[in-house]
Amino acid sequence: MATDATQTTAYGDLVERYERISNIENAAGVLNWDQEVMMPAGGTPARSAQLSALSATSHELLTEEAMGEALDAAESADLTGEEAAAVREIRRQYERATRVPTDLVEEISKTTSEALPIWKEARAGDDFSKFAPVLEKLIGLKRDYAEHIDPDRPAYEVLFEDYEPYLGLDTAEEILERLREELVPLIDRVGASDVELARPFEGEFDADTQEELTRDALDTLGYDWDRGRLDTAPHPFSTGTTFDARVTTRYDEADMLGALTSTIHEFGHATYTQGLPDDEYGTPLGENRNLSVHESQSRLWENHVGRSEPFWSLFLPRVHERFPELDDVTAREAYEAANRVYDDNLIRVEADELTYHMHIVLRFEIERELIEGDLDVSEVPQVWNDKMKEYLGVRPDTDAQGCLQDIHWSHGTFGYFPTYSLGSVLAAQLYASADEDIDDLDGQIEQGKFGPLHDWLTTNVHQHGKRYTTPDLVEEATGEPFTADHFLDYVNEKYGALYVL
After folding, report:
1. Is the Cα torsion angle 195, 387, 405, 245 positive or negative in sign?
2. Residue pair 183/357 in contact by the 8 Å Cβ criterion
3. Are 249 and 259 in contact (CB under 8 A)?
4. 3 pLDDT more than 80
5. pLDDT tens, 267-321?
6. Does the model's pTM come out above 0.85?
7. Whether the Cβ atoms of residue 155 and residue 142 lie closer than 8 Å to each other
8. Phi first, then psi: what are they for 230, rounded to 5°?
9. What CA–CA distance (Å, rounded) separates 10 from 246?
10. Exposed e or buried b for every residue in 353-378, given b needs 16+ CB within 10 A?
11. Are 248 and 264 in contact (CB under 8 A)?
């Protein structure tokens, strides 16, 4: 058996190597943020080269022989539970990475960097044909990537594990199927209801004033400005580390609620990142569990808090202050407006809580068929529009409203979309447990006391980093396995009351 000193040296050596990789990847994250938020349009060639070099460097460091030897030594040591978990996560990354050639990693990074401005131009010009060639190239590259990792499994299943490594694609399929089976009848009942919810936020709302209001919302919820910032981007996102967790949003002067809800959504991501343990920065224990868990945090704050009646009772005075023309709007009316189910919504990030999941099913089905070779890129606009009509009852008039609305494919993130629905389901399960543990949670929200909810989430989710697998983390936090029951109970109760079903 190794001595304590040897054990400490073995684990310390492994972590030191991993921290170098983590810092390179975090630096690449800042460059990605800059490209989407601030970089001049002409900067793409240099940025593409920079990101490609960083991707290649981190991949080489992760796959070098010395890293394998460090892993072997650490695994032979007498580790604590947390140390063993960190080693498990590094081993998993190492095993996948060593199967992929560095030049392929470099080419994927270069192509995604080049694809971003092409997507922006295609969307602005409402012309999918401009984006199609680079999309086809990315699909081919990601197929090659999956083939290198595991040639004996479907490529999409392998890609999905980059974003949710432990629940399994079969679980995602079961969840999505259950949501489709149970939400569609609920959506139909809502559509048949005679109840008309309030629509007080119609009109034109100055973008600069909307920004002031979104900053009010971040202040109200407890965003740590010393470790974050708010900017605009074509597609809202959050990125960063526990020390620097940034959020972005976008403003539509005809849709004040859209900017507010998307900002609260991204706050949920950022507060998870800010809640990770500082002293584990650079190790798996200081990283988020995965995108399903990450999405659970954004959906929890957006839907269970930001769309709740207690929140609107608290926050409406700030709306009145920024937009005096809305002085006569009541908290109940604001709550109803935030939870209207739309029968004509084309845009995923603007979708209501129910129809949102049909957007995810559509994207999941299309990208899986693309990756598995069952759908040609040229067919995407037509298939997208047909599925929109089938699942949501509307047909986009433009590619910008249809297959070009999301940024994800320009990033090459095939397999990402299912985590949105998995995260929504987990958000409901976590919130139900928090509601049981926190005395009068609704009342605390109405009073602006978000500390108890922040503390509960930090204690039960954030502070663990990647210590637990997803199923184990859910069990630790809620005392039961991952289930869609809480989400379906929540939406049936909420929308049943709103629409008197």
Report:
1. positive
2. yes
3. yes
4. no
5. 999 999 999 999 999 999 999 999 999 999 999 999 999 999 999 999 999 999 9
6. yes
7. yes
8. -120, 130
9. 34
10. bbbbbbbbbbbbbbbbbbbeeebebe
11. no
Select the CATH number that applies to the domain covering 169-498 from these four: 1.10.1370.30, 3.30.70.2190, 2.10.10.90, 3.90.180.10. 1.10.1370.30
Number of other CB atoms surrounding residue 478 within 10 Å: 20
Q: Tell the residue number behind the tokens 């080269």, with chain if given.
A: 49
Q: Which DSSP category does 278 fall into?
A: G
The reply to whether 266 belongs to the active site is yes
Average pLDDT value for residue range 421-428 = 98
The SS3 of residue 418 is helix
Q: What is the pLDDT of residues 142-166, one digit of tens each?
A: 999 999 999 999 999 999 999 999 9
Residue with tokens 């470099």: 106
Q: How far apart are CA 62 and CA 97, in angstroms?
A: 7
Q: Which two tokens stand for residue 489?
A: 């109970």
Cβ atoms < 10 Å from Cβ of 429? 23
Domain boundaries, the chain: 4-115, 169-498
Whole-number Å distance between alpha carbons of 272 and 478: 17
Between helix 81-97 and helix 4-37 the angle, nearest 10°, is 60
The DSSP bridge pattern shows strands 244-249 and 230-232 to be parallel
Q: Is 3 exposed, middle or buried (0-12, 13-18, 19+ CB in 10 A)?
A: exposed
Q: Distance (Å, rounded) from C-alpha 86 to C-alpha 180?
A: 36
SS3 string, 212-261, reads HHHHHHHHHHCCCHHHCCEEECCCCCEEEECCEEEEEECCECCEHHHHHH
Residue written as token pair 């409901």 = 428
8 CB neighbour count, 10 Å cutoff: 13
**pLDDT given at position 117:** 95
Catalytic entry in 83, 157, 266, 353: 266
Give the length of the chain: 501
CB 434 within 8 A of CB 456: yes
pLDDT in tens, 360-386: 999 999 999 999 999 999 999 999 999
**What sections of 339-450 are H helices per DSSP?**
356-371, 380-392, 418-437, 441-446
DSSP 18-31: HHHHHHHHHHHHHH
C-alpha 122/C-alpha 403 separation (Å) is 11
pLDDT of residue 7: 54
Q: Which amino acid is at 135?
A: L
| 454 within 8 A of 438, measured Cβ to Cβ | no
* Structure tokens given for 66: 């010395």
